[in-house]
Records
---
Amino acid sequence: MALPVTPIQHIELPELAARGNRLYVKRDDLLPVAFGGNKVRIALELMEDMEASGCDALIMYGDLRSNLCRVLAFLCHQRGVPSLMVATSENADGGTSFNEDLVRRLGVPVLVCEKGGIAEAIDEAFARLRACGHRPYYIYGDRTGRGNEGTCANAYARAYEELCSQEWELGLGFDVIFVPYGTGCTQGGLVCGSLVRGDGRKIVGISISSRPRERAEKILDATVRDWFEKRGLALPSDYASHLDLCTSYTCGGYGARDARVDALIEEALLRCALPLDPTYTGKALRGALDYLRDNDVSNASVLFLHTGGTPLFYDYLASTRGSVYSN
């Protein structure tokens, strides 16, 4: 499936002006598939790899608010691919997410498990699909979630070329690119694209997860290594110096946020008509702005990758209804 080029939008926020920094946003939330977002590119890579592997059914995994599972559910439904979702029961906000509602409306069976029982739930998913005569494909590789890092990263190794072409066409030169870091495949893909071009780009992942820094760095490292290995390319000797991950602005972990995140979401919405969500993009952009301040960055051209999650933006609107206006 060919995807259109997503726009790059200039965003003006007062706190940037004091240091002369200019903020641009690449709007991957506007990808016109299954409510958009970075998971569209990643899901298409996974579907392509599933077919190349000779499999005919798909096992997806995420928490009940998963953007990736929502996109995969749509693609499987459209293509007639049997699918099953394994979901962890944790949900920091409580209640039902629009993503969960969409997955269930598309008829995807959901196996809910505890965080410590994921591998066993994956085994059950394989057994169910094999019992129906299918050859299932698990999006994260083996039952422990290893083996597919490079496949997912390829989505944004490709997208990096699109980004560079836009940069040239628009006459821009981005000094730093910020991206929300969740599973690491989006940042990892961008880093791979940059390493292949040899442009020395500064690509900073702003962690939104509860993973300890050491674990998050290992995942990012494995993602880059796996992408190069799958393509038979030599990994640059200095690749590790390009793995720039910031874990200082997580607000305590995945799904957690503070009042400053909400304030930025409101400001971006009312000032720029930019929809951000508190789990990924709102928290990551808040972290990116704090990173610029804390590292005394000035007069820089900054790009933020808007990774979407539009249904999560509507979760935010629903959860804050009545608290931001009086009538």
Note: The beta strands are 8-11, 22-27, 57-63, 83-88, 110-113, 136-138, 176-181, 202-207, 244-246, 301-306.
---
Amino acid sequence: MQEEVNQKVISLCIRTGKLTGGVLAKAMKMFLDAQKQKSGRFKKGKQSLKKLMEQNAGAINIEVDESNIKSFDRIAQKYHIDYAVKKVKTSDPPKYFVFFKARDQDAMTMAFKEFVAKNSRKRERPPFREVLRRFKDLSMGMDKNREREKTRQKNRGQSL
């Protein structure tokens, strides 16, 4: 019974005029090459933790408190980082762990530096509505101070 479980059966269909050993060998080689390429394809970018662990590259994690991981996705794509996000709900403010492959560690540090710098610039900027309101008030103040000349002239008839 165990021997049957360990053995795999492959069904290969070939269209040929004459089946020779060379044709069969070529077909098997094509099949094995296709299987090798298929197993080498891993998902890139954001993925599940299970798929990240299947890549056998050793995972490292970083704890992140903020929930704006979505904005991190663009930067991670820029640096070609494969990562997975895990949310821990046991703590009162939920914490997020970002898992990534060990070979991506240098790229990950650069990506996090860029991400933090970008977010700090966003926080320093005043909100757009506030800036708009300030300019609106400024423009309303300018209109009140401006005087308008109101003179009318009526000219009827001929003047000499």
Note: The chain has a mean pLDDT of 76.
